[in-house]
Peroxidase
Amino acid sequence: MPSFPPVIFLLLVFIPSVLSAPVTSLTNDYYQETCPDFSKIVREVVTTTQGPQGRTAAGILRLFFHDCFLEGCDASVLIAKDALNKSERDDEINHSLTEETFEIVTRIKTALEKSCPGVVSCADILAQSTHEAVTMIGGPSYEVKLGRKDGCESKARKVGENLPLPNHTVHEMMSLFQKKGFTLKEMVALSGAHTIGIAHCKDFICRVTGPRPDLDIDAEYAEVLKSQCKDYTVVNETRGSFFDPVTPDKFDNMYYKNLENGRGLLASDNILFKDNSTRPFVELYANNQTVFFEDFARAMEKLGMVGVKVDKNGDVRLRCDNLNKPKEAILRV
């Protein structure tokens, strides 16, 4: 049984002080004069590192969502720990973020520093690379405004209580999404990110084993999951299963069709179809991929504007995994 990269788990949380910056703060052509090859460089690196079964897209999507939760879309999730600080990526929940995905961001940053040193923020790299990764595997294109600055802190202690869990109810998830400014429909649309990626066995095995298995799950599907996760704690704890076992390498609406057929991998996936408040949106997207793509695109545009830093509220890091030293801070006003 092969090992998989971690789950692409749609996670959003709200911090009242980091609501979206004014739309006019970011622009489509922010790097037109200072780094005209920005989009081209990002696209080339993402293309050359795209792994099988949508691995690259899944990893980048998850990284982007995790970044935007706490301090807004400011690349704070990229910061590595040091002797004095445990960063966001060092919290146990974020241990599943793959080194492969962090390395992709590093490669993009290195290429951009050669072309236009000290200009492009890591936050903009994350936002643009997410768009490129999604569209490369068939997902919708959407507008990516640019001009974000990188955050100046990253604290592990802020992570845990702010992330939805695999067994959350609709009410629990919506309490986080709503505070972030998202509607119930937008929450279901963004959950469509689970059309790619995998979940680790530990996040769903209790649904198919033990004294009280989940009767909502399709019986045949449950047997497949049992087989995939057999002895995973002994053999390999990174074992897992695709969110969408039908078209795992394609961004489409199959995730919602699976929910209708009792093949939602996580309890938090299954509940979207079971709950009367979200079921109509699941059915809508299962029956109409065009509408799903349109709604997902709009929600991604909205997500990308959450809590961004501009001007002197942040800086442009020399390295995405390290905060700038005071004398290294690069400000663009």
Summary: The chain is about 40% helix and 0% strand. The radius of gyration is 19 Å. The chain has two domains: 16-163+305-328, 170-298.
